Amino acid sequence: MTLITTRIPPDAGTRRRGWRTALVVAVAAMLAGFGTAIGVPPADAAATVDAGAHHVLVSPDGGETTDLRNSTAGDVGVLADCGTGSFHAEAVLNGGTWTARNGGSTVYTGSDMRSAMQAAVNSLSSGRTSKQRVVVRGSGSVSANSRLSLPSYTILDVCGTINVTGSGSGDQAPVYARGATDIEVQHLNLTGSPLYGIFMRNVNNLTLGQIDMRLSAGLGVRIDNHGGDRAVKVRNIRIDNVYVQGSRSQAVETYGVDGLTVGTVTARNVGESGLLLNDTINATIGTVDADNAGAGTGYAAFRMANRNGRVGSGYPTNIRVGTVIARGGGRGIFCVSESGGAVIDRVTISNTGNNSILIENCYNVTIAGQSGTVTGGGEVRIAARSEFPISSGITLQNLTVTNTNVTQNPCGGANNVIRNVTRVNSTLRWC
């Protein structure tokens, strides 16, 4: 059998959708045709990355096999990509029955999605020092007062939707880890009313891939170091693409992280911030895109708090943000409580209910390093509370501010600069 790789041209919009459809149909055909043989590698399949792993190979034309193991979402689309590649265990829904398997062994059969997923995870090699992967194929419900717990060196790929029902307390989450390392969540679609959608405490070397949450309660993603010595930050956190709608709290929040890379956080109608960084250093953020984040509150599309960006006793530039977009909601950008060391390259802020931008007791912060617009909403303000040193090293530049004001109050602080700011129906109060 010949292995070939199909790549979709990145500039072919209509053709891309056609190829994606063909691939999804091919996957469905394979599942129907092979039944329980899902996950069993063909005899001539290429070597796996880890002993015991299986492959799913798709043959869209009934002849040569298309090898999707090295594909990305850009190649075949998120739906077709989910569940492809090598795996060690799986939880599969057939009718109303969940079956968890590891190789030729069945480790769970029943009606409970969480139990099936946990059984698949628990079937992975004990004491492993390299990652093993679990694929979930199907949709179902889990209780808000329960967890799917992931140990170290685990990859989870959920090809379906987890709907969270009921209520609970504490740090329960449908995807949970604590005191672990080397965890990946490749795909996750979540609905319902979780306390937390994803909760990761004291987890190093964490990767979150394509995450989609349509919620009616809770907080989307929480990553923190609050399980022990909070002077020791968790390290090497990567978030590719997170969409959160309807959470009562933040879409994404970190606390106590050293080394954070974020592609895009999209927040829609969340109760508090789109992205909130607390006590986090060495972060690179691509885009924060928020509609109606924190309406009626002091939260913001993008917020930094609790000495975020502080390294030792100083604020070297270590928080780098590409774009912040805020429409409506509470604030657009909010830096507070001795945070700083940040450069935000591009801003587009419109019609916020509270301050468009509020910099309060922060240090070495540049807003609109490249370009930006602020339209309507509350004023752009540099402020300070008396219990912290006054804001300093704040630069507002390359902005067009329309129908709102720019204010520094109280006066004081060194090296606060405003330059290349165009004001339209806007007053300036600068010390």
Short description:
By secondary structure, the chain is mainly β.
Q: Element order, helices and strands?
A: EHEHHEEEHEEEEEEEEEEEEEEEEEEEE
- The overall average pLDDT, rounded, is 86
Largest sheet: 23 strands, mixed
Count up the helices. 4
Write down the CATH class of the largest domain: Mainly Beta
Share in β-strands: over 45%
Computed over alpha carbons, the radius of gyration is 24 Å
Q: Per CATH, which architecture of the largest domain? A: 3 Solenoid
Low-confidence runs? 1-77
Distance between the termini: 75 Å
Briefly note the structural class of the backbone.
mainly beta
- Helix content estimate: under 10%
What is the number of domains? 2
The geometry reads as elongated
What is the name of the CATH topology of the largest domain? Pectate Lyase C-like
Protein name: Right handed beta helix domain-containing protein
Transmembrane segments: 21-40
InterPro entries: PbH1, Pectin_lyas_fold, Pectin_lyase_fold/virulence
Keywords: Membrane, Transmembrane, Transmembrane helix
Structure explained in plain terms:
InterPro entries: PbH1, Pectin_lyas_fold, Pectin_lyase_fold/virulence. The chain is mainly β. The protein is elongated and about 75 Å long. It folds into 2 domains: 3-81, no CATH class; 89-429, Pectate Lyase C-like (3 Solenoid), CATH 2.160.20. The N and C termini lie far apart (75 Å). The protein has helices at residues 13-34, 73-76, 78-81, 113-122, and strands at residues 3-4, 65-66, 89-94, 97-102, 105-110, 132-137, 140-143, 154-165, 175-192, 196-215, 219-224, 234-245, 252-268, 275-291, 300-305, 319-327, 331-335, 339-350, 355-360, 362-375, 378-383, 392-402, 406-408, 417-424, 428-429.
